[in-house]
Amino acid sequence: MREQVEKVIKAIRPAIQADAGDIELVEVDEVNGVVTVELFGACVTCPASTQTLKAGIERIMKDRVAGVSEVVEKNALGMSESPVML
Q1: Using CA atoms in the order 41, 42, 43, 45, what is the torsion angle rounded to 10 degrees?
Q2: In the chain, N or C: fewer CB atoms in 10 Å?
Q3: How far apart are CA 22 and CA 34, in angstroms?
Q4: For the chain, how long is the longest CA-to-CA vector?
Q5: What CATH number is associated with residue 59?
Q6: Domain that holds residue 53
Q7: How many domains in the chain?
């Protein structure tokens, strides 16, 4: 699965770079189908980056790689974004 995910990221990277951003694969959880990526450059401060991640990157990833259930972004603290549980 990781190899397929890397191919998809390689295919979508030029579009992200065209907007002064970039994307890097952090982790592929093959058991749960969760792909963790890190966004760089203009993506970090872009208000539309969450929309790009979910409606763009995640949709493409699910279409092209069997078993992918979600794409999440690694935040600046080095943890995947997730709801806070207290």
Answers
A1: 110
A2: C
A3: 19
A4: 40
A5: 3.30.300.130
A6: 2-73
A7: 1
